[in-house]
Amino acid sequence: MPEHGQKIVHIAKVTGVHGMEKHLLTLLPRLNNQPHEIAFLILIDPQHPVADYLELLKQQGIATHPVAIQHDIDPFCFAAVFKFFRHVKPVLVHTHLMHGDLYGITAARCAGIKAIISSKHNDDTFRLRQPLKIINYMLNRNTSRIIAISDWIARFTQNVEGAAQEKIRTIYYGIEPAQTASDRNALRAALSMGSEDIVVGIIARLVEQKGHRYLIDAFAKAVMENYRLRLLIVGSGALEEELKKQVQRESLQEKVIFTGYRSDTVDLLNAIDIFAHPSLWEGFGLSVLEAMTMGKPVVATKVSALPELIEDTVTGYLVPPRDVTALSDALLKLAGTPSLRQQMGASGQKRCRSLFSVDRMVQETRSLYTEVLASQTGLCQ
Question: Which CATH superfamily is domain 184-355 in?
Answer without folding.
Answer: Glycogen Phosphorylase B; (3.40.50.2000)
